[in-house]
Design brief:
Distance between the termini: 101 Å
Strand content: under 5%
Order of helices and strands: HHHHHHHH
Number of helices: 8
Number of domains: 1
Number of strands: 0
Radius of gyration: 22 Å
Length: 266
């Protein structure tokens, strides 16, 4: 009995020590996350403002991609810690269930969603000459994982009555289902359809990066408004406007190239 008691006490003591020591790891993840996010915010505009397909665009695109991958990985770490120890990771908060949902499960979902969007955008260019390669199992599994985590986020959002969790899950569903629709098309609708898919995915990732940056600032400066869906919608509005602008420009440029070739000789 005495040995069993010692084992039980050791387990509980170890768990308590582990919980007490985890905030430093969360702080480390947060620091790296903010650093990677800052690089991504700057590199995003480098890619947007340079000639598409040119060396500068490719350079800034690579920087943006790897910065996003780093930020997403740190988000997964912070989300996992917040799911396990929500109050220990966020001193001053009192509702464990609420913040396990908002800062834990939603963070995990957003990390995988952003990674999935970035990966999709990169693969569109890499496989532009072989659409079938886009349907390889890692890409499909990644998108299905996004849907599963989104469903979890939606269910928790309804249970916790959190409009933000519901909103981001619905946005993720729409995004991921359009990706899967394109992936399973036998052939792309046009030879340059990959350009639009690449553009939409990468700008959507930029929207996510700016939204995350804004939310971190709000949590620190205006915690009462940190999860206000109206404020979170600002980067989305700007990003959608950018997508529309570049898609129209792509259509006009493609029309100028193709129209002379389609006019029959008299």
């Amino acid at each position: 009995m005495r040995a069993t008691y010692r084992v039980i006490m050791l387990i509980f003591t170890t768990k308590a020590r582990l919980e007490a020591n985890m905030p430093w790891l969360f702080t480390l993840f947060l620091g790296v996350h903010v650093g990677c996010g800052t690089v991504a915010l700057l590199a995003f505009w480098g890619a947007v403002l340079t000639r598409k397909g040119g060396p500068d665009h490719l350079y800034w695109g690579r920087v943006f991609t790897w910065a996003i991958y780093g930020a997403a990985a740190m988000a997964l770490g912070m989300g996992a810690l917040s799911v396990r120890w929500p109050l220990a990771m966020h001193p001053g908060l009192t509702d464990a269930a609420l913040y396990r949902g908002l800062l834990g499960w939603m963070m995990l979902y957003l990390g995988v969603l952003v990674f999935g969007m970035t990966r999709y955008g990169r693969q569109m260019v890499a496989n532009r000459r072989d659409h079938a390669k886009n349907r390889r199992w890692p890409m499909i599994a990644l998108q299905l994982l996004v849907l599963a985590l989104g469903a979890n986020c939606l269910a928790l959002g309804l249970w916790l009555r959190q409009p933000l969790m519901i909103l981001v899950s619905v946005i993720g569903f729409g995004t991921t289902l359009t990706y899967l629709w394109y992936l399973f098309r036998p052939t792309p609708p046009s030879p340059r359809a990959y350009v639009a898919e690449h553009l939409k995915a990468m700008v959507a990732t930029g929207i996510a990066a700016y939204t995350a940056f804004l939310s971190v600032g709000l949590i620190r400066l205006f915690p009462a408004h940190a999860f206000n869906p109206v404020i979170w919608a600002v980067p989305t509005v700007v990003g959608v406007a950018l997508i529309g602008y570049f898609l129209r420009r792509e259509d006009r440029g493609h029309a100028r190239v193709t129209t002379p070739a389609t006019i029959p000789a008299e």
